Amino acid sequence: MLETALDDPVAILNDYEKNLVAMIREHGWQTTSVGEYDDDPAFSYTTGFWWSSQGAEVLVFDFPPDLAHNVFGQMMAELRSGRTFPVMEPVPRILAGEDVYLFPVRPEAVATHLLSSRWFYKQHDFPVVQLVWSDQGRFPWETGFDATLLNRQPDLSPRGWAAELRG
Q1: Range of the domain at 96
Q2: pLDDT tens, position by position, for the chain (167 residues)?
Q3: Number of separate domains in the chain
Q4: Which end of the chain has fewer CB within 10 Å, C or N?
Q5: Residue closest to 49 by CA, chosen among 126, 155, 130, 132
């Protein structure tokens, strides 16, 4: 059985933790959004996908929080209906009219980016994928991707997106 913060007595939780636990109890998951900091772009991620549907937690950079939440909500609805999402290949029907890719996230990046999820899962390992979006159908590892957008979604995969795709 997966040990989570849902097992903790409410009396030991702070207000943020109480809210996170309540959202996961009610909906099965929640979105956390983190604003830009220094040169790091804003990002959003899920907590509860693994607990409630055995789907990997998802992280995306540079989406407005409402868009990230809506995309995550659509993904959760599809997970609940039995859909699985392939990793390291095009995934249709996540963004209107555009494919995305999902890549595994290296453990060090999980530790520094998904703080609420790490707390919720009591520091135990859990799967995380990064949703990578395209620029007019071109992905960051492809010719023609707008180079000014490269720093808007850092590559958190273990070996780099292009190397991951080559196997």
Answers
A1: 5-166
A2: 689 999 999 999 999 999 999 999 999 999 999 999 988 999 999 999 999 999 999 999 999 999 999 999 999 999 999 999 999 999 998 998 899 999 999 999 999 999 999 999 999 999 999 999 999 999 999 999 999 999 999 999 999 999 999 98
A3: 1
A4: N
A5: 126
